[in-house]
Write a structure and sequence with these properties.
Helix content is about 25%, strand content about 35%. By secondary structure, the chain is α+β, with helices and mostly antiparallel strands. The protein has a four-stranded mixed beta sheet.
Length: about 70
C-alpha cells in the first residue's frame, strides 16, 4: 500500500526550466524532475517556505499524442 502525502500540485509548461530557476533561487527540492510511472508526465517535488510539499507536473504532450494514436 502506497503512503499518500498531503501536498499541493500544479502544472508547469517546462519543468526543467522551472526546476533550474527555483533551485537557483534557493528552493530545496525533495525530488528532481523525473518521468512518472505512467510515462504521461514529468514530476518534481519541493517544499515551500512553510515546509508544505509541492508537486510540479509537466504533462508530456508526446506521450498523450502516442496514447491517442495507438492502434
Amino acid at each position: 500500500v502506497a503512503e499518500v502525502m498531503p501536498h499541493l500540485a500544479g502544472c508547469v509548461d517546462d519543468i526543467a526550466l522551472v526546476y533550474r530557476r527555483l533551485r537557483s533561487a534557493g528552493v530545496a527540492f525533495v525530488a528532481a524532475p523525473e518521468q512518472d510511472a505512467s510515462g504521461f508526465a514529468n514530476v518534481a517535488f519541493c517544499r515551500d517556505p512553510d515546509g508544505n510539499l509541492l508537486e510540479l507536473i509537466e504533462v508530456r504532450r508526446q506521450a498523450c499524442t502516442e496514447a491517442v494514436t495507438r492502434p
